[in-house]
Amino acid sequence: MTANPLSGAASPPVVDRQTWLRARDELLAREKAHTREGDAIAAARRRLPMTLVPPVAVQGPGGRTPLVDVFEGRSLLIGYFHMWHDGAPFEGQCEGCTFSTCHMQLLDYLHARDVTYAVFCQGPYPDSAAFARFMGYPFPWYSARDAGPVLVDGRDFGFIACYLRDGDQVYETYWTTGRGVEALMTSYHALDLTMYGRQESWEDSPAGWPRVSGHPWRLDGRPTAQWSRLPRG
């Protein structure tokens, strides 16, 4: 049997169930308030103005692809702008962007709401598309290397942008970066529900709670998602 890596870690005090339920209900009230505030922010997001995107093309499996064609006939587009390190092996590509995008495995629910999800990579198409195949990604993958001045517009890769298509016109409606891209990171949201959370150094956790040593997206010094896909040995 594999040893439990969390064996011996500190844990909360043990109380009777009624005491535990009261504490849980107190936190639930805060969670509900947090949800309502999130709903209010989302409502404000839906009321943002939008800005016209000049005609621009990215590189895809069929070569030069106008941005309007990336929508695949749908009205809405979510684009993740993926960093790229020229010349680095697959396991040397950005762990943060990999962590963001690798969760997007089932697109049916987005498509049902007339939304396309696609990745715009900083790297050249042939090299970066090979990485996408290596990772087993099911979503459309493009290179935005030559489209950067229009699509990136002074921002750094590693952000989400949202678009609306009206005929042949494309408008940018929203963008976010930093922790905003956690919208894609379902593993983080799931870990937040557990007693030990994400186990990262910045979290406010009690003394003795386990912490990830080293890079948060590496396991034993190796990139978590990429390493598991490399040939054994």
TrEMBL record:
Pfam families: DUF899
The name this protein goes by in its record: Dithiol-disulfide oxidoreductase (DUF899 family)
Species name: Catellatospora chokoriensis
Lineage: Bacteria, Bacillati, Actinomycetota, Actinomycetes, Micromonosporales
